[in-house]
Amino acid sequence: MLGPYQTESDRLISYKGNKVFEPVKKINKVRPSVSELEARCKHLKQEEMWSHIARINHHIYKAANQYFDEVGALFTPLPLTTRMISSPGAVYAGNAIDYTSDTCPITLKWFDLPQVAFLSESSQIYLEIALMQRQVYHVYSIYNSFRKEEADVTHLPEFHHIEYEGKVSQSENQQIAFGLLAKIIKELLNHNEADLLFFLNSNKLYELEELSTNINKIPVISYAEALEILSLETKDSKYQVFTTSNNWGMWEEVRITEIYGKPVSVTQFPLLEVPFYHAEVAGAEPKVAENMDLIWSGYREILGSGHRIRSKEALEAKAKLFQLPKEDYIPYLQTREFADYEETSGFGLGWERLVQGLLETPYIWSTVHFPRINDTLKP
Questions:
Q1: Strand pairing of 264-267 and 220-222?
Q2: Domain range enclosing 165
Q3: C-alpha pair distances (Å), 218 with each of 182, 268, 297
Q4: Residue 143: CB partners within 8 Å, gap ≥ 6?
Q5: Which of 58, 78, 105, 288 is 20 to 30 A from 234, alpha carbon to alpha carbon?
Q6: Residue 243 domain-assigned?
Q7: Is 312 helix (H, G, I), strand (E, B) or coil?
């Protein structure tokens, strides 16, 4: 199962094409066309593919809600404005980075308050807080997320997350995440075969069925193992350095799935190069996080997950290391003060990334009816 992208020896990436889109060389160099996006109303009227995507989106939403109901997760309405950013920077080589520099949140003025508000880039922190409710063990949300990043073929500054948090271990969390993905694929195959076949050949549907049936057979490797595989395969010495800086990006994600010929789960990333809330794997050296990214075959990460820091002391130490403004994060820090606090794990599934990977489209904005990019707010 491979597609939609393939790596080239010059570190560029090509798009293979599907039944709608022609192959594209150097796809990672393409940028969105403002004129194309501002003509979206006309395209919705003229291009048949949009109704197929609409039906696919509808059944993804239905499948997600049905699945979370089956596992006992409660839908939780959450704010889109916050002072608590879920991924506020990282620490490289002992140097703390300003707490908003990694996520680059989108800011706005909130009435007459002197501080700016941030548009939410993840529901994770609020889902954790929601688990403080008595006899509530699993929660989820399906919401917009915002990141001040320039759009490219796999990024949008506004996108949608399906996010889950539960009083479960990371192993259980991963099984719930894989179960959600299998549920979505099965529902699409049952209800949207014609919509999928508008983009894909029939053999691709067979591969999706195989994936949904064997979802728990996805290879799981550590980040250290991924670097070792890339080092041996490319003979590039940069992969001998245990860091994500400059050696883990689009090319590497696509390449690692090409080597395996299927989706790959990558675990245990460098502890100080991932969001602050991830728990540390006890006894690991170098220090790594108890987390996992799911890389879609021939594509990129579509799902990120992790176990949360367990104790108040560890969370406060991490908050200090990452230079979090304590006054903003008091509600989150308070969650670890309760004597009966139960450890949690959670994940976030990128909706548009999932659709792009499933349909093997070249550009993420070609899966979104009303995409938002950094150059325009139209339509």
A1: parallel
A2: 5-367
A3: 12, 16, 10
A4: 78, 80, 120, 123, 160, 161, 163
A5: 288
A6: yes
A7: helix
Using CA atoms, how far residue 375 sits from 34, 104, 157, 350, 372, in Å, is 7, 16, 10, 22, 8
pTM recorded for the entire structure: 0.95
**pLDDT tens digit at each of 379 positions of the chain:** 678 999 998 899 999 999 999 999 999 999 999 999 999 999 999 999 999 999 999 999 999 999 999 999 999 999 999 999 887 654 444 444 454 444 578 889 999 999 889 999 999 999 999 999 999 999 999 999 999 889 999 999 999 999 999 999 999 999 999 999 999 999 999 999 999 999 999 999 999 999 999 999 999 999 999 999 999 999 999 999 999 988 999 999 999 999 999 999 999 999 989 989 999 999 999 999 999 999 999 999 999 999 999 999 999 998 888 888 888 999 999 999 999 999 999 999 999 999 999 999 999 999 999 999 999 999 9
Domain with residue 17: its CATH number is 3.30.930.10
The encoded tokens of residue 278 equal 């991830």
For helices 312-321 and 326-334, what crossing angle results, to 10°?
Answer: 160
Domain tally, the chain: 1
Beta strands in the chain (DSSP E): 5-7, 13-15, 74-75, 81-82, 91-92, 95-96, 107-109, 116-119, 138-146, 158-166, 220-222, 264-267, 291-295, 301-307, 345-350
- Whether 258 maps to a domain, the answer reads yes
Phi, psi values for residue 308, rounded to 5° = -90, 155
